[in-house]
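Figure caption, in words: inputs first, then the predicted bound structure.
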Amino acid sequence: MSTITAATLHFPSPVPPELGRPVEVAPGILWLRLALPFQLNHINVYLIEDGAGWAILDTGINDARSRAWWESVLAGPLADRRPTRLICTHFHPDHVGLAGWLTQRCGIELTMSRTEYLGTHFHRRWAEPEEIEAHTAYYAACGLDDASIGALLERDIGYRWLTTDLPHTYRRVASGDGLSIGGRRFEVLTGGGHSPEMMMLYCREENLFLAADQVLAKISPNVSVWPHEPQGDPLGDFLRTLAELNGAVAEDAFVLAAHNLPFVGLHARIAELTKHHDQRCQDILDACAAAPMLPAEIVPLLFPRKLDAHQTSFAFGETLAHVNYMLRRGWMLEDVGNDGRRRVRPA
Ligand SMILES: [Zn+2]
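Bound structure (zinc ion present):
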């Protein structure tokens, strides 16, 4: 995840709401901002008018602060108009963290895509000793030192504490479905790369696009290789999704995303994000031109500033995403040395 500033976007609501205090951002849509204990310090959650109540889109992470904000929202603005259902866009803890707690607390159903629902269960059960062993070997083969491996494993295991146990049943939605919320009809779109089957909602009549983490105004969404899928091509998935959105959603749609400010200028932003990843690929090719490199050696060249453990894990996964993207397309080659470590070079 890195900051790439968009010059061409328009921000109809340039001032974010106070933490925990929802404001109307479009007719019948409330914008609620909750804090996150990371460098990316907030998430935007949306409440969509749904008959006599509100549908909730995403939850914030499982911590005391977020629960307290939800309690105050439930006792305040939502006291007379109760939550009707919870929709979670993807398995990341800032989006699904309180899903178990909220669905129980409010007696409502969870709506998710299947991969994201199952993915939440999968990541919550991490990690058994053999799994930690396999992941450690993989990280070491990429050239990571013990301290960085420790930080990555800690992040993976920490998922459990940032989330709550999901309800045992859910309502599945998939790409191409329609979803009626109140008087609105949303098209369900799904995207890959940031997470495997992230749900986005598009109301064509009102030109409203709930983009989750696929297209953000200020930062490029994290696109990472995960150790259980070491040859994965999340960057290929991510760029394919961006190209699809370019055709499926109008340029002047009002984009309500999960981080940064809501904006208008979707196609311009898609072009910027695509260019950013092209540039990253070129930087990696240049870096390895003189001699093959371990993926871990490339990380500081792409992310020269000092990174904490949380950022290092994202930077490493992101670097691998670009490497795998180019390996798969034959732009790079990989050699596994006698030391068992994988070095990459331009083809
Ligand atoms: Zn996410």
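The chain has ten helices and 17 strands.
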